[in-house]
Amino acid sequence: MAIRKKQPTRDIMDSYFEDLEIEFERWRETFLERPSWNLKAGTMEPLKDMKVTTTEVVATMDLPLTVESSLQVKPLDNETLEISAKMKRTVHFEEFGVTHHKGEFQRFHAHVRVPVPVKIDDMKIKFKKGLLEIHIPRKRGR
Amino acid sequence: MSEEVNIVERQSIPQGAMIFLGFPDVGLVGVIAAEHLVSELGLVEVAYVDSKLLPPLIVLHDGLPHSPIRVFGKDKLLLAVSETPIPGDIIYQVMYALIDWAKKKDVKMMVSLSGIPIQDRQDLKELKVFAAASNQNVLKMAQDKGIETLSEGYMVGPQAVLLQRSARMGMPALALMSQCFLNYPDPEAAAEVLKSLAMVTGVKVDVAKLLEKGEEIRLKARDVMQRTQQEMTKMKKSQELDLPMYVS
After folding, report:
1. Number of domains present in the structure of chain A
2. Is residue A142 part of a domain?
3. What number of CA atoms fall less than 13 Å from residue B194's CA on the CB side?
4. For chain B, how big is the Rg over CA atoms in Å?
5. CA of A6 to nearest chain B CA: how many angstroms apart?
6. Is A96 in Cβ contact with B220 (below 8 Å)?
7. Residue of chain B minimizing CA distance to A130
8. Tens digit of pLDDT for each residue in B113-141?
9. Cβ of A95 and B233 within 8 Å?
10. ipTM of this complex
11. Where do the domains of chain B lie, and which CATH numbers do they carry?
């Protein structure tokens, strides 16, 4: 008869706290009101999403009008990525019908915080039709 | 219940029209499709939704206030569209008001344009459109045009209320849903749903322009998509991904 190794309490607790962290991150992003643009930096924040599986973290980002060769995904530490990309053209407020703000945007810029321990140096990146996909393998244990 | 929500007519509305609905939902499919219909068919605002239940919000166009939920139209075609997500706790009231109003106008059919999220959407070359309806005749009409039926599963949001109430009132209603991104604006999915709409209703628009402008639309729809994500989370939209427990 096979004996199941490990699994019990600690893993269950880890998994519980990981879920809690993800939920908190989602909650924080949902309720923290701020504009999706930064006039001073000339950047727009892209829409982003994250999925945590048993083996990896998959972060995606919608980056329309992006110059693919300008795309940069840079780890800032073990749990934070900085994403930056140049747009194919300068975007002005007027294009949104907005005339009470003046300014323009040339880049996308965002930070992604990974909610579980990962091997950030082993991340793999896919970019297709303006959609960025970052795959980061998870670290085993805490 | 619908007395709390009024449909204010700006001009005379013909009897026996068809009404399409495009509300913020997954991939903003309905809103993108609706916006394209308005511009391609030259639809004008003919009515709007007025209610104290709505958030204290107006949409300014050329400095003048407009309701975020408006009905556009031309001849015997009406299109209800919302520029902001409808809060989950008032969807019943808003939809009941619209359906009751449509009933009074002897509307021929109501068609909701929306999406159905799918994993690995970015890897799909062709998007399928699925249909669900308020009765067997309408469902067969879609099936006869080659549109697959969404046979089992959960539906959350305005189209769920549309089908439920229309079924109860004996009104023909159809929900067309294209496979799409959950959290990203999806103009390609909007184009697919418009193609299916043309097959079912004969209302055709050129979707080439919509596809050409795809990246621009995705850029401009970011904030509405963000707000829509928040409402979808609150109304537990992810239940649409649950595996149903079949009860015969």
Report:
1. 1
2. no
3. 27
4. 17
5. 30
6. yes
7. B215
8. 999 999 889 889 899 999 999 999 999 99
9. no
10. 0.85
11. 2-234 (3.40.50.10900)
